[in-house]
Amino acid sequence: MPGMLYHLSFAQQVYNKLSPTLLLDKINFMAGNLIPDLAKADKQKTHYRKKASNGLLWVPDLEQAKKELYFPNNSVKFGMYAHLYLDYYFFEKFLIDSFIWDKESKKVINPRNNIEWSFSDFFSENGLYKSYGEINYLMLKDKHISMKSLQEIPEILPNTGIALFDERVEKTWKKELEGYLSRKIEYTGEILDYPSFWNFIEETAEQFAKEVLKN
After folding, report:
1. How distant, in Å, are the alpha carbons of 23, 127, 164 from that of 71?
2. How many structural domains compose the chain?
């Protein structure tokens, strides 16, 4: 799943595209985009997981999530659905397409530089999550999300009315984000290519908005 700043940047893009037409509460919509990753329950349940197309990863079952969360008149739940939407397309249309997934050797290979990782190393603090850290400052520097927008979101996120999501982890999202931003990690691009990644977020936000407005 993408990191916290990427979900919030995606939410900002979606809000900008939909707010002229939909009566979205920006703060609640942004907050909703954080909630699925902060619930204490098993992510298999909070992310409605099913097997991805490559048979190796897990992605949200968007049809199931849509039944329970797709309510544009409820900005919190609608934000939660947007979070899962980005997760789905991040795996299916970005991560799976950007890397070689060798099932036999259980290796992930970056075709841009031929660097390879074991599956466990790729999805670790020294792998993909380190790459998120590399890009965090670039996202802020390029104003894809602003500190002002982040400060507007309450530290204690609103309840959803769904018990599964309303029991939260102890560390608030702001404390978690402070931890991420406190790590000064130089951008290498070894795993995620920043321009390609941001282009994916923009295209996915545009796609999401078009689907919503078509209904």
Report:
1. 12, 35, 18
2. 1
CA–CA distance, 30 with 153 (Å, rounded to integer): 7
Amino acid, single-letter form, for residue 78: F
Is residue 101 within a helix (H) or strand (E), and if so which, with residue range? Answer: strand 100-102
pTM: 0.96
pLDDT 10s digits, 39-83: 999 999 999 999 999 999 999 999 999 999 999 999 999 999 999
Report whether 131 contacts 197 (CB < 8 A).
no
Cβ-based neighbour number of residue 209 at 10 Å: 18
Structural domain boundaries enclosing 126: 4-214
**C-alpha to C-alpha distance for 52 and 17, rounded to whole angstroms:** 28
DSSP string, 110-154: -TTT--EEEHHHHTSTTTHHHHHHHHHHHHHHTTSS-HHHHHHS-
Residue type for 74, please?
N
